[in-house]
Write a structure and sequence with these properties.
Shape: globular
Number of strands: 10
Radius of gyration: 20 Å
CATH class of the largest domain: Alpha Beta
Strand content: 5-15%
């Protein structure tokens, strides 16, 4: 896929104020110029992913995979607030000439969608055949279908939700507390907050995988060990992996954005908000997901007109959407190949 940067010439106005000038959006696209005969698949990434889905979703995206560039025009845009090329806390604030860092404004999920819309217009894409994503990528896909119902034809929401529940907010707040416990987060040094970010990652992993996954993959070979546990090494390894590629300020920012997700906000109720979706919808749960459990995807399917629900059976919790590619491909293929009953 081709990596591009779009520099928006106009001011960007987030929902909560604090105008951003010089907005840059990093995106990957499967081919340019766009072939009008190929349906557009817009993939919305999750928390710490970048805009190249071939890297982080290799089971689904790439030559010969379900989302094959030979069949689709594939677009994925890095969200506002990230550190992978789109404007975020590590970008320069034009007003100060310094990095935004902790001064970066509160960005909502709806702001992510607004940035997507700006990019869609720039690319000259009239219709998005399919918007899809796992976790907070599903947040974006759902909001896009509500905010711009005539643009998105189909949405597939994977291990996602209609709102950030108190349970999920509590997890994010605890992760931010871990980052804030690292005093370097409050300095202006590059890499500030890395130790806190590693701890936050460890906490997050517990909610992404859960009991069965850890007990299967991190079990000890013998019965005599009193230290040096595999699970301990795994947590530290994963924390180090993240801090080698991500930034604490972006993690702090994106989790705050994630907490803004509530389709009922300013729309009266969940029922009224989800009734606004015109796109054909497939809501997919994962049997062992403790972060966004299947009851949340089931409710979306119940309240979105004509929506269908399907479930992936996995011991790998929320991360199942990245792991169970064969099951996911089967569900999405069946959905896209079947016309709605209406």
């Amino acid at each position: 896929m081709i990596r591009k940067i779009y520099k928006h010439p106009q001011p960007f106005f987030p929902e909560q104020g604090e105008t951003i000038t010089g907005l840059e959006i990093c995106y990957h696209i499967s081919a340019e110029p766009i072939d009008p005969s190929k349906p557009v698949v817009w993939i919305c990434h999750a928390l710490t992913a970048n805009s190249n889905p071939e890297e982080w979703w290799p089971g689904m995206v790439g030559s010969g995979k379900f989302f094959d560039p030979a069949k689709f025009t594939i677009v994925c845009a890095n969200i506002v607030g990230s550190c992978y090329g789109t404007t975020g806390p590590m970008s320069i604030n034009p007003r100060t000439g310094k990095k935004w860092l902790r001064d970066f404004p509160l960005i909502t999920v709806r702001d992510w969608v607004s940035a997507h819309e700006i990019l869609r217009g720039h690319l000259g894409i009239d219709k998005v055949y399919l918007a899809t994503g796992g976790s907070i990528g599903g947040f974006q896909s759902l909001e896009w279908a509500i905010m711009h119902p005539q643009t998105v034809e189909n949405i597939v929401l994977i291990a996602s939700s209609y709102t950030q529940t108190p349970w999920a907010v509590a997890i994010n707040e605890t992760e931010r507390m871990a980052i804030e416990a690292d005093a370097t987060f409050f300095t202006d040094i590059d890499g500030g907050g890395k130790s806190g970010l590693a701890a936050a990652r460890g906490l997050g992993l517990l909610t992404y995988r859960g009991y069965e996954a850890y007990n299967q993959t991190q079990a000890e070979d013998g019965l005599e060990k009193v230290e040096g546990f595999r699970a301990s090494s795994y947590q530290r390894y994963q924390g180090q992996k993240l801090i080698d590629r991500f930034d604490a300020h972006s993690y702090h920012t994106i989790t705050r954005s994630q907490d803004t997700h509530n389709v009922a906000r300013c729309r009266g109720s969940f029922e009224k908000a989800l009734a606004m979706v015109k796109a054909r919808t497939l809501s997919i749960g994962i049997s062992s997901d403790i972060l966004f459990p299947p009851c949340e995807q089931q409710l979306m399917a119940k309240l979105i007109p004509g929506a269908a629900y399907a479930e992936i059976h996995s011991d790998f919790g929320h991360d199942g959407f990245l792991i169970e590619s064969a099951q996911l491909e089967n569900l999405v293929e069946r959905f896209l190949s079947t016309r709605s009953a209406s």
